[in-house]
Amino acid sequence: MKKTKLRNGLLYALMLITILSIIILKPINNLDEIWNYNFARNIANGLVPYKDFNMLQMPLLPIICGVILKIFLNELIVMRIIAAFMCAWILYFSYKILNKLNVKKEVSVICVFFLGWLLKDYFCIDYNFATLFVTLIIINIEISSYKKNTNFFYLNLKTSLLIGVLAGLTLGFKQTSGLLICIATLG
Question: Phi/psi zone of residue 102: left (φ > 0), alpha (ψ -120 to 50 degrees), beta?
């Protein structure tokens, strides 16, 4: 058990270091990244979304990032570090889901490596990645819950409540995807 946790921790650390080195060294040319930073910076400076500044997306990700910017440092590098952690968690949860679906560990690592390689140019702080992150958490919880009790109609109130809250959070990141995730979660 300790060996598996250590291996998983090292795998996550490797993913984080790899993604961090990719994101940190990127030139600043992604307008979405700049807009997301500016929204979070405005919130960190005490401005209210939709009242003091315009934005089309839902405000949950800028609010979370704005709080982090307020606590640490109001710079784009902090947003890139947040993005690296989030993207590493996306890859890690993909790996865990594949393992729970009884895919061989070697194949899981190769699939996750390939996924990371495909997404390397797109890694940044973005509401689509935040929605994907929460969706993977929901899928991971669902698979874990099903593995514990193979009865399809088993009801665990705590798990159901957690999944509902997480599905609701996706609405705060992006309306369209969040609505579809909420409908799928209800199903």
Answer: left
